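Structure in, sequence out. Go:
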């Protein structure tokens, strides 16, 4: 089975930009009006999944003699894989990716919408992969275990100090089920906060899911509609 691509570029209709994720976690956004940022990122990478407005493709850079690399798009449907030439890094644009995704994914609009939604949902509801060279912080993990006796625990530290890695490590060690929800500045909405947990299937957390839907409905619908 092919190894899943580490990076994914996903179109966000709500925010009108492409969200770049790494192992399911958002890293940055690329706006169509600023192609230079995307071009700089392409210079340093060789593969990613593209989930655009028109469809989904896998994008790979294949090396040639002399060190020159050329980009190709792949799309597998019904056990048949199609391939399209995309060109060199300097000519590869977001618009070209959309055009190619539309061509290779013709007639699969419903499947694409479902794929895009599942990838976005998975990135919000799954902890990141733990690094291979992981130094476990046993004292802090014990503190997190002890915090289970309190209704709410706030983990605060400057950016880059390993908060997410610590929580992912703690989650990985837990035998009981843990609900994970990642939010960033683009999720500044009560609706996002309550709808995301309710869409994940947590058999042991059915009360949480039920409460999430009730709160989300109160936010989304007028009182007369409830």
């Amino acid at each position: 089975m092919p190894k899943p691509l580490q990076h994914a570029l996903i179109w966000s209709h709500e925010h009108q930009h492409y969200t770049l994720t790494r192992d399911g976690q958002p890293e940055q956004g690329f706006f169509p009006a600023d192609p230079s940022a995307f071009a700089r990122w392409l210079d340093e990478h060789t593969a990613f999944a593209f989930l655009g407005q028109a469809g989904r493709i896998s994008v790979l850079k294949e090396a040639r003699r002399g060190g020159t690399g050329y980009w190709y798009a792949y799309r597998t449907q019904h056990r048949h894989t199609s391939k399209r030439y995309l060109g060199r890094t300097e000519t590869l644009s977001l618009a070209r990716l959309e055009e190619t995704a539309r061509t290779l994914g013709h007639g699969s609009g419903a499947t694409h919408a479902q794929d895009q939604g599942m990838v976005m949902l998975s990135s919000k509801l799954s902890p990141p992969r733990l690094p291979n060279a992981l130094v476990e912080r046993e004292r802090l993990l014990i503190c997190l275990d002890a915090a289970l006796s309190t209704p709410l625990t706030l983990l605060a530290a400057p950016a880059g100090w390993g908060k997410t890695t610590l929580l992912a490590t703690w989650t990985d060690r837990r035998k009981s089920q843990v609900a994970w929800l990642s939010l960033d500045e683009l999720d500044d909405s009560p609706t996002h906060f309550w709808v995301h947990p309710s869409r994940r299937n947590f058999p042991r957390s059915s009360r949480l899911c039920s409460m999430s839907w009730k709160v989300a409905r109160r936010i989304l619908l007028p009182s007369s509609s409830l």
